[in-house]
Amino acid sequence: MKQERSKVKSDILLRVRLLYVLFILAGGIVLARLVWVQLFSSEVAYNADRLASRIFTQEVIPAQRGSILSRDGEPLATSIFRYQAAFDFASPGLDSLDTFREQADSLAKLLAAFFKDKPASAYARMFREEHARRYRLVRPRDTTYLRSKGAIARFFDRLRGEEYITHRIYDTLRDHTPVNIFPREVDYAEWEVLRRYPLLNWNMGMVYNLVERDERIYPQGELARRTIGLTGDRGNYGIEEAYRGELAGKPGKALRQRIARGFYGRVAGGDHEDPVDGYDVVTTLDVDLQDVADKALRQQLERQNALWGTTIVMEVRTGEILALANLGRDPGGGYSERENYALSRSMEPGSTFKLATMLTLLDDARMSPETVYDTHNGDPVTVGPARNIRDSHRGDHEIDFRRAVASSSNVYFAKAMWDRYGITGKKFDYSKYLHETLHLGETVGLERLGERKPSITTDWKVPDPGVMLVKMAYGYRVRLAPIQMITFYNAIANDGKMVSPVLIRELRRGDRVEERFESRTIASSIASRSALHEVQRCLQAVCTEGTASAFFRDTTRVRVAAKTGTAQITSPTEGGRPYLGSMIAYFPADAPRYTVLTTIETRAQPGKAYYGGPLAGPVVKRMVDYIYNRGHDWYGRVESDGPRRYPERIKGGDIAQIRRVAGKFSPRTEYEERSGWGKVRVDSLSRVVVTTLPDTPGVMPDVRGMGLKDALFLLESRGLKVRFSGQGSVTQQTIPAGARITPGAAVTITLK
Question: Ranges for the PASTA domain (predicted)?
């Protein structure tokens, strides 16, 4: 009996021990699993990330893109925030139908009055339909619950047979998809008004999500579009593309928690980083000048039925670009900013390149301006190996350097260059001078905006180097962009100092300038002082007696120095031979402040211009006139305060006009006649004394002391052919006063 009990006891102990072992093994397995999961397995982290991604999201907060501004701070491109209210019509805050309909009807009336796009009833209908679609009650059923909770109250309810109350309940289906309620996005000022309206002021809870979008706008429209550029799906070019990094800024980030589908709230204390807005890019462009350049160029392109054109205005001393217009023909026949021709079109410039030839001959070859060549009256001639070299005009035979510049003679410069660099075998010296002294083989610093590199040979490895040398003398077989040509001419206006053009003045954030850009000195002097002065005089002669005289012969207001150029080019155009016409001018010639270039490509068409002067001249003339008339600081001023002052000198001329002027500015005027022509002197007491000139036919009058206008009128009324130089009042006349004159005689007057 004792043995059986002992056996049973042993079995029980064995089973208990086995259970202990099993429990220990199970605990060990669980512990090992926990250690594996916590230390070695990626499953937990994966599941945690999945869960966190459903609850939390890392939102990128975009930085506001910087603006592109004119030199005066006017916006050329800027970003503004647009707002849209994305409603959650399934939000629990809108479950009270009576309250929702009351608030929605009020909001509908206000939105209809604000946007004026549809009646209030349409807004109200939209709100109710969207609410009914997004918030639905389904599967209705009855449920019961006790009317009263206390035992005594339940006893009396039971006696009345009203112990339980029946109530109908529903399941709710909510669609939290956001619905935009504004007919369009609104700006910040509009949103400040709208946010006070019912529902939008969150009087029924957070029932909508405010969606912000950064929109790029261009307040000046298409003005300077190729220079300013575009960004986004419409293209990336111009300043918008070149300064993308500076304008874009640095986006921020914020941790948000999911509240409902499409709705998130910012997590307090989360990993936040505020965005850094982009820099504002301040350009050198003058909006008024840009507008005038655009209109003048557009008008000339339409008048001449041309293909494209560009106009540039540059400040001489600083190199700042004040206007940069680029217009090309659209498929529809109009003109728009299709390409930045000023920077990207590297083409044969034609006779405007003769400026380089002029400097080469005067400065490098030491040729005298008195050197004479026969230009053969416009007939074709052979120069070295080059045949059929001719001038575009007739009337010139043996001419000197100055006349060759004024008339833009191809033959003269071809012969002069061949004699000094062709026959002598100094072609490499010529190309070296162009590259190293004149710096015409390099870009001018606008590569970031798409500037093309010039093409001027250095190795002369061509089948016809002699022909190439001759044609380079008058602007063929070389390629330069308009921006490089105006930089070259600007160096002449700047007394030989070549500075790089500047289009971007500074980067700023708010009122703080972060980085300033200034012109780079490419060369302190590109030629000797004597060569520069001779070239400057020749460019002025182009305006008074040469190919630009139709536009700038009148020097009574402002003297201009310029050069015209025409090139037959190879271009895939139809309907006529393509030509490139240019004019480059700087003014005032005696103290230059601005350089202006216009280049136009056109086709030879009946009744239309294709030479550089008549093709580009009207645009340059318009720009010069506008800038001069706008620049009030160019004119002398009479201050209203301070001691009274009187003129020390008054020009002679028409006595009636002298009396009118003197009467306003001098204390006393003495004269013999009330009309006619007279000379003027101002005595020590500031009295104006007018002496009448004799009006004797056939006798040379004394025009010394007169202004150009009166002197020209008086001399030409006597039948004389007048040439003049200088500005101010007449100081010399080649025919002495009182000498006998005959109609048709020539007289030269000098003004100072």
Answer: 695-752
Q: Is the dihedral of CA 483, 489, 492, 494 positive or negative?
A: negative
- Count the Cβ atoms, other than its own, within 10 Å of residue 4: 8
Parallel, antiparallel, or unpaired for β 498-499 and 398-399? unpaired
> Using CA atoms, how far apart are residues 171 and 64, in angstroms rounded to an integer?
45
pLDDT top residue among 242 and 716: 242
What is the model's pLDDT at position 47? Answer: 65
Q: Measuring CA to CA, which residue among 632, 653, 581 is closest to residue 610?
A: 581
Map tokens 């504004």 to a residue.
182
Structure tokens at 10: 């042993």
For tokens 């580009």, the residue is 616
CA distances from 288 to 74, 319, 342, 346 (A): 11, 18, 19, 28
- pLDDT score for 636: 47
Burial class (CB in 10 A: 0-12, 13-18, 19+), 725: middle
The pLDDT score that the predictor gives to residue 44 is: 64
Residues 6+ apart with CB under 8 A from 564: 351, 352, 408, 542, 547, 548, 581, 582, 583, 611, 612, 613, 616, 617
- Encoding tokens for residue 138? 């389904």
Q: 564, 351 in Cβ contact below 8 A?
A: yes
Token reading at 191: 């949103």
Contact 431/375 with Cβ under 8 angstroms? Answer: no
Q: Are 351 and 612 in contact (CB under 8 A)?
A: yes
Which residues neighbour 651 within 8 Å (Cβ) at sequence distance 6 or greater?
Answer: 680, 705, 706, 707, 710, 729
Rounded Cα–Cα distance for residues 505 and 490 (Å): 19
Q: Is 3 helix (H, G, I), strand (E, B) or coil?
A: helix
d(CA 189, CA 194): 9
Q: How far apart are CA 518 and CA 285, in angstroms?
A: 14
- Which amino acid is located at 350 in the chain? G
29 three-state secondary structure:
helix
390 exposure class (CB count in 10 Å sphere: 0-12, 13-18, 19+): middle
Supply 332's token pair.
């529809």
CB 527 within 8 A of CB 437: yes
pLDDT tens-digit readout, 464-488: 999 999 999 999 999 999 999 999 9
**What's residue 17's pLDDT?**
79
> What Å distances lie between residue 195 and 80, 85, 111, 200, 591, CA to CA?
18, 10, 11, 5, 59
Amino acid at 60: V
Task: Indicate the range of 17-31, 51-65, 254-268, 339-353 predicted with least confidence.
Answer: 254-268
Tokens 């980030």 -> residue? 253
The alpha carbon dihedral of 519, 520, 523, 526 has a sign of: negative
Q: Are 676 and 693 within 8 A, CB to CB?
A: yes
User: Among 128-137, 264-273, 452-461, 491-500, which stretch is predicted with the lowest mean pLDDT?
Assistant: 264-273
Q: Is the pLDDT of residue 42 over 80?
A: no
Q: What is the pLDDT of residues 493-538, one digit of tens each?
A: 999 999 999 999 999 988 889 999 999 999 999 999 999 999 999 9
What pLDDT does 3 receive?
A: 59
**Tokens describing residue 90:** 């399934």
Measured in Å, how far apart are the chain's first and last C-alpha atoms?
Answer: 153
Check: CB of residue 144 under 8 Å from CB of residue 167. Answer: yes
| Cβ pair 396, 379 in contact under 8 A | no
Q: In this predicted model, what pLDDT tens digit does every residue of 608-651 receive, in sequence order?
A: 999 999 999 999 999 999 999 887 565 544 455 555 666 777 88
Which are the contacts of 386, defined by CB distance < 8 A and separation ≥ 6? 414, 418, 466, 467, 470, 471
CB burial of residue 476 (10 Å; 0-12, 13-18, 19+): buried
> What digits encode the pLDDT tens for the residues 166-180?
877 777 888 888 999
CA distance 511 to 205: 40
Q: Which residue is it, tokens 């150009």?
A: 708
Contact status, residue 516 vs residue 506, Cβ threshold 8 Å = yes
